[in-house]
Each structure stands twice: as structure tokens, then as C-alpha cells.
Amino acid sequence: MSAHSRASGDAAPAIIRLQREPIAIAAAVEKLVGVRKEVGAVVTFTGICRADENGAPIAALNLEHYPGMAEAEIARHVEEAYARWPLLGVLVVHRYGRILPGEDIVLVATASSHRQAAFAAAEFLMDYLKTRAPFWKQVESADGKVWVQAKSADDTAAERWSAPPPQRDAAK
Amino acid sequence: MSAHSRASGDAAPAIIRLQREPIAIAAAVEKLVGVRKEVGAVVTFTGICRADENGAPIAALNLEHYPGMAEAEIARHVEEAYARWPLLGVLVVHRYGRILPGEDIVLVATASSHRQAAFAAAEFLMDYLKTRAPFWKQVESADGKVWVQAKSADDTAAERWSAPPPQRDAAK
Amino acid sequence: MTSGSAGQSKKIKVRYFAWVRERIGKAEEEIEAPAAIATVAELMAWLADQGEHYAYAFENPKVIRAAIDRNHVQSEARIEGAGEIAFFPPMTGG
Amino acid sequence: MTSGSAGQSKKIKVRYFAWVRERIGKAEEEIEAPAAIATVAELMAWLADQGEHYAYAFENPKVIRAAIDRNHVQSEARIEGAGEIAFFPPMTGG
Fold first, then answer.
1. Which residue in A37, A43, A169 is closest to B101 by CB distance?
2. CA D91 to CA D94: how far, in whole Å?
3. Which of B72, B133, B138 sits opposite D93 (nearest CB)?
4. CATH number for position B91
5. Is residue A21 domain-resident?
6. Does any CB of chain A come closer than 8 Å to the CB of residue B53?
7. Given A47, A105, A135, which is nearest C91 (Cβ)?
8. What order do you get walking across the sheet with B144-147 strand by strand?
């Protein structure tokens, strides 16, 4: 399963941040790219608080998390991503607390020499954040506060990574 | 093949820019996100000029393009992406001219309500840019100037989109 | 919370999140469970018996996830040696 | 470039990119191809006959891609009515 091993003590960063503050995506990506001269591809995923949920406008999302476990769980999946793909950098920033419509919730950025690894690792990390990272969303609207239900489609998406990753040629 | 039709006259943007100048990624993404309240997911791909090619340091990349056709070809694939996935915005910026190591070459950004569409469309557009958009890279190094060879792995990557896309549930 | 039935009991730090926390009315507590309680599933069943708030929180134990010392565990997992056990609904992060 | 063989010839604007351009030594030109030239493949064969630079550029026509009026075409494509035909190596953008 571990087609690529991550050199320990290596300059390839695994930055994980949990914060209340909005995410400065540009600065985050620059940090990731600046580290290594072999970086040829950076993929970012930004999850954004939509202005409505199931057709009704929302006032805010409240993100609860399990401090300590959230960081540990994300770190385990970042290491798993490094083991699966030849990555040169990974950045995960997840907010908690009250988040307004249009604001960022989560940022995942992956850097690699070639694009396939960066895309696959970003998808992998997002699928795992959705289903395994201890965060819970509550929607605040005119009707009150309602906890968001987990989606079976998210479990299905996460399960596809249980099999060993397909071997791909390294096209940029 | 066209599971999703793009509403014409719709606010969902398809911004395509060809430029010599470095790409202001943050500003580009903000523009994409700001348009629609339903945006829940933004994926960006940034292609970066690596500092070496096949192990040897490079001085620069020279990107030649076919003006007019490049824009038209990208626009056709952006429309194809809109037809395949429920996108809320697409941004493609491709530079031409002389590009230094560490500088951006290309930016693709896709916005959608849910993450799968944004990821799939960004990969689709990158695979097509690599194989169908009329751009040619020349590496400048101490040994002189050498045109980059097309990679068969890129053709393989592009071919996987010839089949109709798999139907996925819409998990965020 | 009252301590468990007869025999040696064990003290465990328990944490609750999201609607599990809301239903129970607290984020964490130290419990004294009977020594016979060996697994996460048994602990959930015992907790469900500790009053109406607990019964409401654990009314459908199949949907409740658990972590021991910040690692996800299945309901069959043994709780012996656990420093901290957490109960929460399925995660909805990202 | 000299015009084609006997019979009515047609004027076509041709553009070259990347190493095709470098080998031929120009980025674009107007050619007069013989009326008998019907397809892209035939035009490439005819161009390859127009001097050593052309022979070098088209020495391996299978790797050369073509576009008519800014649309990719196969080598069997008919050139009748073409406003602009471009020849170039496989693309390496992105």
C-alpha cells in the first residue's frame, strides 16, 4: 500500500492548522510552494460555507471539534497520503467556531512534482476529513439550530481509498 | 454524456485568460467564489515551473502558443466541463512567453456546490490543457534550448474522459 | 452521576460532542462504571441507564461513534486502560 | 516558395509552431498548392517536397498535428475551404 515512503527529517512539510480565523489561502499556498524546487503542481481545495442548506437561507455554521483528536486524526491521514503518493508538501487548515456564509471552512493544499499525485492526495484528504476528522457542523437559521446529518455519499467516497491506489505513470 | 446542462445567460462564469504576467491566484479565486451563494467547494490547480527538468537545472521555460486557437480550444473544453458537471464557475489562466523556475504556468479553478464536481472538472480541464491546448514548452538551460516532448501518460490521462463520466452522489 | 453497581468500579473520563453533548447536558465528566463493563458497547448501554438525558443521548447507540484516547474505535473495543472515552455523532467536518 | 504543379492552384495561409516553425524558418506564409492536393496528409507530403527545411520539418509526418481554422483535425481531413492551416508538434501546455 505504501508505494512511496516519506523521507523522515525531510523538508517536505505537513502543515496542519486548526483555527478560528479566516484562511489566508494565497499565503498558505506560497509557503507550500516555496519549500521545494521540484514542486510542479499544487492542488487546493477550499470548502466554503454556502448561503443556504437544502434551499433555506442560513445565518451561520457552528463548527464543533474535539481538540487534540482532530489534529491527531488529520496528521495520521496526512502521513497516509505521504505514504501513498510522492508529495512535496501538504497543508490542512480547518476552522472551528462560528462561520458566516461565504467564509472558508477548510483548506487542503497538496504539492507534488506532477499533477496526478497532488489531485489524488487532495481528494483523499478531503474524503477523510468529511468522514473521520472529529468535527461537527450545526446550521444556524431562522428556524433555530440544527446539526448537519452525515451523508452516506461521503462514506462511499472515503471507502474508495481502502483499496491500494492504482499505479499511474507520472505525467506532470 | 451531458448530464448537466449549463444555463445560458447564467451568472456562472467561465473566465479564460491568456497572459504573460504572473497569476494572482488569490484574487482569481475570490472572483470565482464571490459570484454565487451556492458555492461550497473550490478546487484550484496551479502548474509551476520546476527548477529542473530530468535532473538538470533549467534557466527558464519558453511557452509558445497559437493565439486565437488557444482561447477557442480552452473555451470548448470549459463548455464541455459545464455540460458534464454542475459547476458554478470555471477559471483558466495560462501564461505564455518566458517563465522562470518557481513561477506559475497555469491556473485552473473550478467552483461547485459540492466537492466531487469541482475536483473532477479541474482534473478534466488539466488533462485536456496538457494534450489539446495549442501550447508548446521549450526548456532553456546551460545546454541550450530544447522543446519538451509530449508524454504518452498525458494522452492516457486525457483519454479516460472519453467515456461518459461515472454518476456520483452529490456529497459535499 | 451515581456510581455503578456492586463490585469494584472504575473511574473513566468521558467526553461528549455535538448533539450527544447537548442531550446529556455536559461536555465531559468522570464516571465510575461497574468493573463488569468491558467494551464500548457495554459502556454505552450502561450510560443509557443513567437517567433520561442519557437515555435520550444513547437511544440509538448504532449511530454513536466512539474514540478511546483520541483514536476511533468500534463498539466492540475493550475499554480497559482507557484514559479518555469520547462519544459523538458521525462526523460532518470538511 | 514555388507554386505547385500544373492545373489550378489554391492559395492557403499556413502557420507553423514550435520546432516545425524553427525548422522551416518562418511562422507563417501563403502557399499555392496544386489543386489536386485534397487532404492535410497530402498537403504535408507536398510541403515536405518544397526544400530541405520543409523536408526536415515534415520528415516524420505522423508526429505533426494540424489544425484547420483553429480546430484540431486528423490528417485525412479535407482542406477545401480552409482559411488557415496550422502545423505543429504534439502540445505540451498546462
1. A37
2. 9
3. B133
4. 3.90.1170.40
5. yes
6. no
7. A135
8. B97-99, B60-65, B135-141, B144-147
User: How many CB pairs lie under 8 A apart between chains B and D?
Assistant: 72
Question: What is the pLDDT at residue A102?
Answer: 87
Summarised one tens digit per residue, pLDDT across range A34-64 is 767 889 999 999 999 999 877 889 999 999 9
How far is the CA of A103 from the CAs of A95, A97, B41, D37, in angstroms?
10, 12, 11, 60
Instruction: Tell me the CA distances in angstroms from C46 to A9, A23, B1, C15, C56, one per residue in order.
Output: 46, 43, 54, 15, 13
Judged by CB atoms closer than 8 Å, whether chains meet at C94 and A130 is answered as yes
Is B2 inside any structural domain?
A: no
pLDDT tens figures, B45-88: 999 999 987 788 999 999 999 999 999 999 999 999 999 999 99
If one counts the domains in chain B, the total is 1
In-domain check, residue B73: yes
Distance from CA of A33 to the nearest CA of B (A): 8
A26 half-sphere exposure, CB direction, 13 A CA radius:
10
CA dist D77 → B69, B136, D32, D42 (Å): 18, 23, 18, 10
Q: Are residues B46 and B81 in contact, defined by beta-carbon separation less than 8 angstroms?
A: no
Q: Rg of chain C's alpha carbons, rounded to an integer? A: 12
Q: Residues C2-28: pLDDT tens digits?
A: 444 446 788 999 999 999 999 999 999
- Measured distance CA(A37)–CA(B48) in Å, rounded: 10
- Give the ipTM of the model, two decimals please: 0.86
**pTM tops 0.90, yes or no:** no
Domain that holds residue A47: 13-159
What is the rounded average pLDDT of the residues D71-90?
Answer: 96
User: Would residue A168 count as lying in a domain?
Assistant: no
What is the chain B residue with the closest CA to D18?
B136
> Helices then strands (H, E): number in chain B?
4, 10
Counting residues of chain A whose pLDDT is more than 90, the rounded percentage is 49
Mean pLDDT of A144-162: 87
Residue window 5-64, chain C: list those with CB within 8 Å of chain A: 15, 17-19, 21
